[in-house]
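pasting for the record
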Amino acid sequence: MNKQNKVRRIFDSISPKYDFLNHFLSAGIDFYWRKKSLKLTGVNKDTILLDVACGTGDFSIAAKKMGVNKIVGLDLSKNMLSLFHQKADWSSGNLVQSVAEHMPLKDNSFTNITVAFGVRNFYNIKEGFQSFYNVLKENGKVTILEFRLPKNFLIRSLYLFYFNKILPFIGRLVSKDNEAYTYLPESVNDFDAKIDLVDYLTETGFVNIRRTSLTFGIVQIVIAEK
């Protein structure tokens, strides 16, 4: 099974338990991470937002609370989009089922793109970022919220134990999907070893790139401009 089909299967499968596990396994800190990301980006009532790998819509909902009214959510998983629709059925929002690499959207359409914990699931990150660049307006911003491995040895050791042992056990127990919460730590470890978001964004043509670390370095926010 290729990565695209694997990711779709996993997220379609765990969608009913996704929100609960997200908030439970992060002890609710994920709400703070999204809000902080949006504040650093500076979204407002004039923002035209594309939320890529939107899942059940938590990033979009947070943006809506900060005054953003024009929002498009895009995700590979039909089941995730269905739950998004149930949670946040606003008339100005559109939901699109698509991969990030080939989005059926007009060029120069959005002032902002957000992605929360989704870039590592792309099957081709450079193609995804090129697609971002195309649909963003001039001076538009992409904001990526993503896991990373902490630099501090002690925190890194504790984090890896939790991420590789406890999280998969609880995830499997609740979601009943043996693969999903094994894939998560594997994808983070692989991503951290191979991918530098700043380098990839620079190669795509983005400028004014800045990275912010949160919560002892387990999460990064990367913001870049077209």
